[in-house]
Amino acid sequence: MAKRAKSSAKSFVRSSAKPAARRASAGPTFPKLATPKIASGELLTLLDFLRFAVSRFNEAKLVFAHGTPDPVAEAAFLISEALHLHPDQFESFASARITAFEANKIVELIEQRIRTRKPAAYLVNKIYMRGLPFYVDERVIVPRSYIGEILDTHFSGGEDGDPALLGDPFEVERVLDLCTGSGCLAILAARHFPNAQVDAVDISRDALAVAARNVAEHGLEDRVNLLCGDLFAPLGEASYDLIISNPPYVDAEGMASLPPECRAEPRLAFDGGPDGLDLVRRILEEAPAHLTPEGGLLCEIGRGRDNLEAAFPQLPLLWLDSEDSQGEVFWISAADLA
User: For 140-161, how does the pLDDT look when each residue is reduced to its tens digit (9 = 90+)?
Assistant: First the structure.
């Protein structure tokens, strides 16, 4: 499995910004900004357009972290997409000159991002996770889960010799992805556990249509099964070696203060009830009936750790950190959950 694809922006700026939906305030109301006129020859290279985009984004006070952590990463992502480059290629071409046709495409994307306040991923119908491209549109939340990285770091044995939480990845036979959305985690799980069949469940048929497209584009139709229903409802008595989930977990206070970018995404994908734990409680309560004895649950809950530990003090939750997060994803074995 490929390492986390580093955003080209990280060659210039390192940021630990967290997803916008987890922030406490939506911020002020922003005035409309006029599109500046760019004279011929003023912007020439990818770096020139990167600087211009970052300045425009800062001026407009955009909110980020829908797959990119800051204005530099977002600008690099949009410029790369306009030029049909993978974000990892940005640095290689940073000093290359841009044609007038390409410049018009780049400026239009920059201004569209400011004008609409939509996440950049919606403007280009693409997001990258672990270096892999996924199709997205307004039917699904823009993927930004830490679980993909954690599968690599905690379920492969690790470079430091630590044992994988679930043993040999080749011996994992069945995986369940709850609240699959665009299907990206189900696809990453299928790639990480090469012998596993993966069931992916979502209550939204619109989201599953997007997931089906991604499953097909990654050639995994024979290994990833998409099911429509409410959490475990469509699964019968099926049991799994691993259950993963990035469910809605934004609490009522957070829902009331979502920034414009997040309001462009499906509300269903955010709303976790008064304390953000409505679905997480159900997952914890129902998961034991669908886990093999040696299996376990991997679940992302954002900033809900304190609430979860207060609600389930008896559970020995293991909190797993990623490069950009601390205490937002927990693991619990089937034995401890039972």
Answer: 999 999 999 999 999 986 555 4
